[in-house]
TrEMBL record:
<protein>
    <submittedName>
        <fullName>Zinc-dependent peptidase</fullName>
    </submittedName>
</protein>
<dbReference type="Pfam" id="PF06167">
    <property type="entry name" value="Peptidase_M90"/>
</dbReference>
<dbReference type="InterPro" id="IPR010384">
    <property type="entry name" value="MtfA_fam"/>
</dbReference>
<dbReference type="InterPro" id="IPR042252">
    <property type="entry name" value="MtfA_N"/>
</dbReference>
Amino acid sequence: MSLQLFISVLFGTLFLLLLIFRVVEPAYVLLFNKPLYIHWYPFSKKLKLSQRQILVNDFPFYNGLSPKRKMYFEHRVNEFIATYQFVGKEIVITEQMQMLIAGTYVMLTFGMRNYLIHLFNKIIIYPSSYYSTVNQTYHKGEFNPKMKAIVFSWEDFLLGHSTSNDNINLGLHEFSHVLHFHCLKSNDPSAIIFFDEFKEVIKYYIDPNLNNVLKQKGYFRLYAYGNQFEFLSVILEHFFETPHVFKATHPELYAHIVAMINFNEEYFK
């Protein structure tokens, strides 16, 4: 192939990609309310055997995926661990900590193409509840935008992960806060869809009639009604922990969450 022909093919390919992202995908999002594609990894990264075994032993969501989707999940977990710094405070960071935290985040964002968020760059882990200088009280976890940090009490993170039917999951809760902030600021297709569906979800918080229906049925714990951010985080905890109850109790709200994070219900066995 001559240099001139190579340059022509290269520019033609770049133009086609630009057309897809500027014209085709926005139209696709408008029609189908989902990104044109989610997973595409030319150089997919694999986990070590010990890392994969942690997912097999401790992550039912991973075990329910098809072999191809397990490959996608592993690649994203690998990228998460490589991207974000894990910092132990009076505790040694272990492979299990990295895998369970990364797996929780990847599960939450599995239907979104741009999953690595730059609002945080480190994950700080304490052995148990810790004293926060932000509001002078003890915390189990928090998202600190100024420090660009997610902070967890490992004791409480592990309890939330291992207890799968109480609708309390510290990892999902704090990562939901990050995802919420990100989608308020970003304009990528997944963020746009998230924000549009969030406007429908939040009606259940601000509309007195819809809000009363939620409270009367008593499915969501009272902490959800503190503010809009906690409302969304609590709802996402319920979505992943007891999805079948959620769908039966509040089917319309459930459908908005499915669309909001572009979630494939086949993952819920």
